[in-house]
Write a structure and sequence with these properties.
Shape: elongated
Radius of gyration: 25 Å
Structural class: mainly alpha
Organism: Candidatus Accumulibacter aalborgensis
Low-confidence stretches: none
Protein name: Phasin domain-containing protein
Length: about 160
């Protein structure tokens, strides 16, 4: 594994969480805009007597139920694939570690031992990276859950703005 490959492997989960943080920031800003629009309507004395207001109230009520359900379904859908990837990576890494350890133990010369130590070190690095990638899997699942909420808040901000 080259240094560039290692760097990319180590940065991937950090970049995923950074992207998720930016999406959450976007969602919060859009939420503030929606709350501001609806609060100004209340302050100006708008009542729920108009048909448009009732339609908006019905839309808000249905969103409060449907969007969290959609979010949970998206996370539940994303989770099995991420769990499968994690166990596959972990299993391959553990198998490589065990094979390298056995190979190292059966070394017959100092040169062979040095070569096999390097292989064992690579296997340990792969094992550590497999565990480290779990943070990226968690970010992927969280991103799937955030997507419906972000979409709805952005749509509300555009509609009310």
């Amino acid at each position: 594994m080259t240094r560039e490959d290692l760097r990319d492997e180590l940065l991937a989960p950090i970049l995923q969480w950074t992207r998720l943080g930016r999406q959450m920031n976007q969602m919060m800003l859009a939420s503030i805009e929606v709350v501001t629009q609806r609060s100004y309507g209340l302050l100006r004395g708008h009542t729920a007597a108009e048909g448009h207001d009732w339609a908006e109230m019905g839309l808000m009520t249905s969103e409060k139920v449907s969007v969290p359900i959609e979010s949970m379904v998206a996370m539940a859908t994303a989770m099995p694939a991420e769990v499968w990837k994690f166990w596959t990576r972990s299993g391959e890494a553990m198998s490589a570690c065990a094979g390298s350890a056995m190979s190292l133990a059966s070394s017959r010369s100092a040169d062979e031992m040095r070569e096999r130590q390097a292989q064992f070190g690579q296997a340990l690095l792969g094992s550590a990276l497999a565990c480290y990638q779990l943070a990226g899997s968690a970010a992927t699942v969280a991103d799937a859950g955030l997507a419906p909420v972000l979409r709805q808040v952005t749509d509300n901000a555009e509609r009310l703005g």
